[in-house]
Amino acid sequence: MRIIDSKSLGQTIRMRRKELNYTQAYLSEFTGLSVTFISDVENGKPTVELEKTLRLIHILGMDLLVERRG
């Protein structure tokens, strides 16, 4: 999926979490990240902490790839 903003990143993370049949509460217990943080990321809050978001992406078995357009 092409990520163009925090909302599309959040949607991608939510879809992956649901594919794995994880609840936000389970993911919170497993990662040590708060349910509020996970919810904020999934809802596209633009001010979430980048390092925690990258950790969440990694834990969900995803990679974040940045490419030059064109």
Keywords:
70 residues, mainly alpha, 57% helix, globular
Explain this structure to me?
This protein is mainly α and 70 residues long. It is 57% helix and 0% strand.
Overall average residue pLDDT = 96
Strand count, sense and barrel status of the largest sheet are: none
Estimate the global geometry from the Cα principal axes. Answer: globular
Number of strands: 0
Spans with pLDDT under 50 lasting ≥5 residues? none
Radius of gyration: 12 Å
Helix content: 55-70%
- Termini separation: 17 Å
Query: How large is the share of residues in beta strands?
Result: under 5%
Secondary structure elements and pairings:
Elements: H1 6-19, H2 24-31, H3 35-42, H4 50-59
Quick overview:
This protein is mainly α. Helix content is 57%, strand content 0%. The two termini are 17 Å apart.
